[in-house]
Give the backbone structure.
Amino acid sequence: MLALVVGVVLVAAVVGLVTTSRVPASARVRQDVAGPVLLVPGYGGAVASLQPLADVLRRAGRRVEIVRLPGDATGDLAVQARALGVAVRTFMSTVSAASVDVVGYSAGGVVARLWARYDGGASVARRIVSIGSPQHGTQLASLGALLPGACPTACQQLTPGSAVLGGLNSGDETPSGPAWVSIWTSADDVVVPPDSARLVGATNVTVQSICPSDPVTHGRLPADPVVQQIVLGALATTVAVPPPGC
């Protein structure tokens, strides 16, 4: 279990500009007022994988919704991003929120970035956090693409150098507006290489920088106590990550 730590290291999130989703400073949401949280599942859309993280966030007093992506979440990532946009607008209206925090696990982190860049998400998101996300692709998808029928549309889009990732990563990787945080494990066995998760302009945190002995792999990330503590810090009123210790 992650030991309780006293104090935090405050990390200022670096914010960039991108022509497709430039948000004027006057229109950005307040960073010191935490709204509801939407959790975005990864490839395959398994909402159960995010339940442990949702439980931790709810115990911390946050209102949380796990997004259900279209079909089995193996289709076009752009369609998934638009579905996220619908879920955000519905949730914000339901709870009368001025902003949202979005946490994307695995491919869900790519979906969150597509939403932020192309669907107006950067103007309503306070924080966007990705966990073990193949932001620059994964070699596992490349291997799957070699087998006929084994790599659906989303899999193909997650191959390094795909048109979707090429467009998403051109220019600034972290559109202005939200504060961005990317979390990953050096022991990731799905996102290869693991630092594909690194985003220019984000607060980048590896699990092992907090707890060097934590062997967590990709599938266990949302349930890992170290990851959960990092997410709690990322969603605080000021972005903060725990100092080393486990």
Summary: The longest strand covers residues 125-131. Residues 183 and 205 are 5 Å apart (CA to CA). Residues 1-21 have pLDDT under 50 and may be disordered. The beta strands are 9-10, 37-40, 64-66, 100-105, 125-131, 179-184, 203-206, 240-241.
